[in-house]
């Protein structure tokens, strides 16, 4: 790329929201924005070293900056709690892929049972659509370790779902009265 | 199933907050960067190398691990369902011939193009608890814990018990319709319009029980429009497929199956096994802008899959008729599809959990197609 400024601006425009969205899962608004700015500053300084695709690398930098924030301030907030605090409860996403879904409240309860690392593995897989080798870059672990976390998270969520529906009373004509929208 | 479940938990507030901050911080961030020398590490010297080293090492590990995986080493995580052999019956003759016919029909459909891929989908799901009551209770529980200065995090709040306690004693369902425009070009803004959710009841007795309990509000979903320029995830199980490259997917069934199987092999999937992954991938891709050739290959691939039954003609909830197909994964979750034999389009799909007769989830694809303008539906 000829013009580094142009290249950096493109990087910023394409990935700012994703990086900030990730930082917001770990820190409050002001801190998350500062960490995101600093992440891009690191990217600017090392523009030649930013790999392709850049997003996993950017999230990995942000993750390290956030880890630093946490230890210095000791205001650690668990990922799962941040998701709930941000309005995950009974909130609804606009993307239709996200609407292929049931029983949000049960999902939230299942989410609450996940460890932070396992929840993060799910976030990267389902919200960012990241393949394992890229998600492992973000989390600073091996693909194998990442896959173990993802697998554990999926099993827990599925077990929670099964348990919940097994306890349910028999249905009566679930969608019989569903009208044309 | 758990992936779709989890993906909906993404807080809507996140997208709004990031869009707002992006507008506000962009100029300042760019100016700050351009004022910083590239070659030399400037201020905050001690912190910089640390991230860079970590980032680089992590990146290196990732690449190495990816090479190992593609070299044929088994991932550490056991994959439930892989070892569990599906009944090796070949697909029922009817299902197979229907799917092969659908493949021919799909291949003959015109290839479209446009700036936005539009879908209108209606989703129905059961209401488990009244939202206001749940929020009220969870808030007071959290305040109580805070008052006793205990760490009120996700592990100390027993949300599952609360949900069980608050479960509605009657059957109510929420149905909502969303129009979505997904921009193909990077930089274009997509969007979605969500209409107000409708509440329906399983029977008049359920409705009476709801009234007797004070007619609580059963859905807090608000209608609204939102813009969205973050790249949409088309198929969670196949993270490499994007709107930009979906037209390049194989048109040969073996190549397509290899591609989808590679995604499955590179990450631990849910409990349904490879068969369910292929089936779910087919559903994802049939509602996405795949080419006629890829759609034909998808149907041919399904035709070779064991354990798919043809259930005859069926109507979707909007009254459109098609052919019903059904398959059950290794986790006993059943998937039912209705496909229009005239166009090979997917009309509706249901997810039926083990031991249930009625669907837990129903999605109706009312329309899908190309359009050039945000907010406009495709013609025809």
Walkthrough of the structure:
- The complex is a heterodimer of chains A (181) and B (380).
- By secondary structure, chain A is mainly α.
- Chain A folds into two domains: 4-73, Rna Polymerase Sigma Factor, Chain: A, CATH 1.10.1740; 91-166, Winged helix-like DNA-binding domain superfamily/Winged helix DNA-binding domain (Arc Repressor Mutant, subunit A, Orthogonal Bundle).
- Chain A has helices spanning 4-23, 29-45, 54-73, 79-88, 104-112, 116-127, 132-139, 143-166.
- In chain A, helix 2 packs across helix 3 (54-73) and helix 7 crosses helix 8.
- The longest helix of chain A is centred in the C-terminal third of the chain and has 24 residues, at 143-166.
- Chain B has a domain at 91-125 and 175-200 and 218-371: outer membrane lipoprotein receptor (LolB), chain A.
- Chain B is 38% helix and 21% strand.
- Chain B is built from ten helices and ten strands.
- The longest helix of chain B has 24 residues, at 47-70.
- Chain B is globular, with a radius of gyration of 24 Å.
- Chain B starts with a helix and ends in a 9-residue tail after the last strand.
- Classes of the chains: A mainly alpha (181), B alpha+beta (380).
- At the A-B interface, helix 1, helix 2, helix 3, helix 4 and helix 5 of A face helix 1, helix 2, helix 3, strand 1 and helix 5 of B.
């Amino acid at each position: 790329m000829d013009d580094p400024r142009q290249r950096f601006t493109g990087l910023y425009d394409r990935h700012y929201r994703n990086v900030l969205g990730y930082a917001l899962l770990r820190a409050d608004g002001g801190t998350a924005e500062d960490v995101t700015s600093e992440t891009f500053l690191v990217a600017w300084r090392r523009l030649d070293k930013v790999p392709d695709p850049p997003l996993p690398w950017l999230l990995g930098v942000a993750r390290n900056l956030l880890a630093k924030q946490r230890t210095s301030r000791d205001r650690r907030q668990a990922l799962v709690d941040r998701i709930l605090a941000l309005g995950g409860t009974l909130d609804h996403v606009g993307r239709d892929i996200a609407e292929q879904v049931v029983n949000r409240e049960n999902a939230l309860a299942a989410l609450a049972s996940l460890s932070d690392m396992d929840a993060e593995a799910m976030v990267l897989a389902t919200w960012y659509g990241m393949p394992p080798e890229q998600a492992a870059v973000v989390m600073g672990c091996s693909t194998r370790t990442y896959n173990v976390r993802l697998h554990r998270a999926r099993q827990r969520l599925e077990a929670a779902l099964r348990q919940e529906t097994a306890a349910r009373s028999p249905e009566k004509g679930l969608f019989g009265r569903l009208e044309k929208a | 199933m758990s992936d779709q479940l989890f993906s909906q938990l993404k807080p809507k507030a996140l997208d709004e907050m990031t869009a707002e901050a992006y507008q506000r911080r962009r100029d300042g961030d760019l100016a700050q960067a351009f004022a910083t020398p590239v070659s030399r590490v400037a201020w905050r010297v001690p912190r910089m190398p640390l991230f860079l080293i970590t980032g680089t090492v992590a990146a290196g590990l990732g690449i190495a691990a990816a090479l190992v995986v593609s070299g044929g080493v088994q991932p550490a995580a056991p994959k439930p369902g892989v070892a569990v052999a599906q009944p090796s019956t070949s697909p029922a003759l009817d299902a197979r011939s229907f799917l092969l016919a659908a493949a021919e029909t799909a291949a003959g459909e015109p290839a479209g193009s446009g700036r936005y891929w539009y879908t209108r989908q209606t989703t129905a799901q059961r209401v488990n608890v009244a939202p206001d009551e749940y929020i009220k209770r969870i808030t007071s529980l959290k305040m109580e814990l805070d008052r006793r200065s205990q760490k009120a995090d996700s592990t100390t709040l027993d949300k599952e018990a609360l949900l069980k306690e608050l479960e509605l004693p009657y059957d109510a369902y929420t149905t909502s319709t969303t129009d979505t425009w997904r921009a193909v070009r990077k930089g274009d803004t997509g969007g979605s319009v969500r209409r107000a959710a409708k509440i329906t009841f399983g029977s008049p007795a359920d409705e009476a029980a709801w009234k007797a309990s004070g007619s609580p509000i059963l859905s807090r979903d608000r209608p609204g429009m939102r813009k969205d320029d973050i790249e949409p995830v088309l198929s969670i199980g196949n993270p490499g497929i994007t709107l930009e490259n979906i037209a390049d997917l194989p048109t040969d069934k073996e190549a397509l199956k290899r591609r989808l199987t590679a995604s499955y092999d590179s990450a631990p999937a849910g409990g349904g096994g490879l068969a369910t992954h292929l089936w779910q991938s087919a559903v994802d891709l049939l509602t996405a802008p795949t080419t006629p050739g890829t759609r034909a290959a998808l149907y041919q691939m399904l035709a070779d899959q064991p354990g798919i039954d043809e259930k005859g003609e069926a109507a979707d909830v909007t009254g459109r008729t098609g052919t019903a197909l059904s398959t059950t994964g290794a986790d006993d979750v059943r998937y039912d599809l209705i496909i229009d034999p005239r166009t090979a389009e997917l009309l509706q799909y249901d997810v039926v959990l083990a031991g249930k007769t009625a669907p837990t989830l129903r999605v109706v694809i009312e329309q899908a197609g190309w359009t050039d303008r945000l907010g406009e539906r495709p013609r025809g």
